[in-house]
Structures are given as C-alpha cells and as structure tokens.
Amino acid sequence: MRFLTSLGGAAALGLVLSSQAFALDEIKFATNWLAQAEHGGFYQAVADGTYEKYGLKVEIVQGGPQAASRALMLAGKVEFYMAGNMLQPLNALAEDIPVVEVAAIFQKDPQVLIAHPDAGLEKFEDLAKLPTIFMGTDGFASYFQWMKSAYPGFKDEQYKPYAFNPGPFLADKQSAQQGYITSEPFAIETEGGFKPKLFLLADYGFETYSTLIEGRKDYVEANKDLTQRFVDASIEGWYNYLYGDNTAANELIKKDNPEMTDDQIAFSIETMKSFGLVESGEALEKGIGCMTDEKQQAFYDSMVKAGVVKAGIDIKSIYTTEFVCKGVGMNLKK
Question: Domain SsuA/THI5-like: where (predicted)?
Fold first, then answer.
C-alpha cells in the first residue's frame, strides 16, 4: 500500500511538473479601435489555436472611442498595442515615450479620400479643385499637410470638419471626405446607392506602415523570445485569416463588436486584398509584417518636408526589423 501511495504521489508530482512545463505565456494585446476585419489576423490566431501553438495565451483588449489602449501598455497592464501608423511612434519619440514597433501588419495605410464618381476627378491632384474636403483635425494636421507639400494646389480653405457622418458629403457632389478604405466606402455605397471614387493616399506617396505591433522598449528587450513568438503567431494568423477558414475569427469579432455585420466584414477583407494593404511591397517576398529602413526613412523625410515632424530625429530608435521579414507563414497562403 505504501508503495502504491508513493507511485500515486510520483504520478501526481509528474502531472504538476508537466503542466508547469507546458504553461502558456500570457499576453494582453490592446487594439486601437472596436473589433473589425482589420484586426482579423489577431482574432484568427486566437480562434484557431495558433497562439497556443506558439506557447501563448493571448487576450485581445479591444479599443474604442474612450479606450486608453496605449496608456494601458505604458502602465504595464497590457504587453502589446496596435498602433495606427508611423506618425504615432514618431510623436512618441518627440515626447520621450519609450515605445518600439516590432512588426507592420499593413504595408499601406488605409487612409482614403472619397469623392463622387461624376465630379470629374481622375487624378489625385484633381482633388485640389474641390471647394470642400471633410476631414478630422488629426488628418488636417498630418496627411493634409503632406498633400499641400507633395501636390501644390491644395489649400487650407478646403478643410471642413468631419463629424464621422457621410451625410454632408453625400449632399455635396463638389466635396471629398476622409475615411478608411475598408470601412467608409461601404457605408457610402449602402446609404448613397453609388460606388464612390477612391483615392488611397498610400498609392500617391503617403507611404507609412500601419496596423503596427508596438511594445515598450524595456519589455521587448527583456522578452525577445516571447516577442518573436507573438509576432510569428500573429503573422500566421493573418495568412490564415485572409486565405483560410476565418469563420470562427469573425464570430469572435462580432462577439466583441455586435454592431459589426457579415457584409461589412466581407467588404473589408476583399478591400484589404484588392488594394494590397497587408500584402504589397516587401511583404510579397519576405512575408506579412515586414518593414525596411528605406521605407521608414522615406516616409520620415516626407513628413519633415511637410512640416509634420521635426528634423534630426533618430527614427531607428522607434522600430526594429529584428522580428520580421523572415518569410514566416508564407507557406499558408493558398
């Protein structure tokens, strides 16, 4: 009996040690907006077990109008944050906020200017002829300043505040409106009953990376293996979301954001593919998430020229290519 008891104790100890050996590293990842297809690869990696395959238990903390997602990361409440584009880390550097971008899921920023199809606009610079462009204050302070620098003819008088309502644009055929190419055009088609003219800023020189995976510098430096696993698993998630069965991921998205519809999700996925938001440039050869020094420098130089950011910044301190451009997950593309 004593022998059997000892065997039972040894077996129990073995189970404990086994469970400890295979314990998953827990990560919280905060997005910068409500759940949507533009976050799909991260939800896919949760839904299909890719994160677990990489030894991770990942909780997605969705953002929203009142969410302070980046503040949560800086306070150590979440490990990684989804930054919008490279202007955020550039501004963080100017304010001595210690962040670093470790992957760029979108090769192209989804920012778009939307116009009426019968307004006689064929080229991007034709938008300068319009008396009105509806945009937010952030857009006016960033990409509109770049537009004025890169395409003479745009002027401040065109700016009208955008209230995230397509009504004023729909009522004025001689106007344009800001938006994300994966979202606002769908709403305009639905409400206006026509396909709008789309000018994706990335295709005309506004070449910033977007949907970035950002971490605190000290955390990334101290947890390189974990960071690499999170980046690799997220990249695989994106390939599976775009080319595999994404049903379970979309259900998780709709659970987090009940206002999201199947039609909107389908539109967003098709748009991400057709405009090469995730796969274009270096990502076609080196995989989703890839960043290059050349593209980072070119965008920074264009923002300095436009007066959006200061000259003399060491931009290599706010991103690293250590974790990307390795072809991870490319075999999953069907």
Answer: 37-239
d(CA 154, CA 199) in angstroms, rounded, equals: 15
- 241: amino acid identity, one letter: Y
Q: Helices 262-274 and 184-192 meet at what angle, rounded to 10? A: 120
Contact 58, 110 (CB under 8 A): no
H helices, E strands: number in the chain: 15, 10
Averaged over successive runs of 10 residues, the pLDDT of the chain (334 residues) comes to 43 43 90 97 98 98 91 96 96 93 98 96 96 97 97 97 94 97 96 96 98 98 98 98 98 97 98 98 97 97 96 94 98 88
Q: Edge-to-edge strands of the sheet including 25-30?
A: 56-61, 25-30, 80-85, 210-216, 99-106
Other C-beta atoms within 10 Å of 265: how many? 21
Q: Alpha-carbon distance 310 to 27, whole Å? A: 34
Distance between first and last Cα of the chain: 59
